[in-house]
Amino acid sequence: MEFDTFTISLLVLRDDAPEWDDETAGAMQDAHLDHLASLHEQGQLVAAGPLGHDTFRGLSILTVPPDEARVLKMADPAVQAGRFDVIVLPWQVPAGAVHFSPTRFPHSMADVEEK
């Protein structure tokens, strides 16, 4: 049997995560979204989104090997600012079992809120 290989990345809220005012939090969210959208446009990220959990805050599925995925995810402004730690895991599924449709990732909260 053949397998397709992806890399899963989890963003984990740090115990010592900085507390931000609304302006800083908004700017950091925009920078985080822009980073994800750029990875998607470069073909390195196929899916990403928030998780409804207090500790595990986001999940990404990447097309690159785990070592490369770790480097890319560590470059996220929210990670660099000390808000999140990153867990990176290889993921294999039977070939063809998972398909990702072309889409556009938002570069900012303004993009998210567009109708």
Give a structural overview.
The chain has 115 residues and is an alpha+beta fold. It has a single domain (3-98), classed as Dimeric alpha+beta barrel (Alpha-Beta Plaits, 2-Layer Sandwich). Helices cover 33% and strands 30% of the residues. The protein has helices spanning 22-41, 66-74, 77-80, 109-113; strands spanning 3-13, 45-50, 56-62, 84-94. The protein has a four-stranded antiparallel β-sheet. The longest helix has 20 residues, at 22-41. The model has no long low-confidence stretch (mean pLDDT 96).
What descriptors fit this protein?
single chain; 115 residues; alpha+beta; Alpha-Beta Plaits; 4 helices; 33% helix; globular
Specify the overall morphology: globular
**CATH fold node name:** Alpha-Beta Plaits
Main-sheet strand order equals: 2-3-1-4
The average pLDDT score comes to 96
Corresponding CATH superfamily? Dimeric alpha+beta barrel
Let me know the largest β-sheet: 4 strands, antiparallel
Ends distance: 44 Å
Tally of structural domains:
1
Helix content: 25-40%
CATH class: Alpha Beta
What is the overall number of helices? 4
Strand percent estimate: 25-35%
Blueprint of the fold:
Elements: E1 3-13, H1 22-41, E2 45-50, E3 56-62, H2 66-74, H3 77-80, E4 84-94, H4 109-113
Antiparallel strand pairs: 1-3, 1-4, 2-3
Describe the structure concisely for a colleague:
With 115 residues, the protein is α+β, with helices and mostly antiparallel strands.
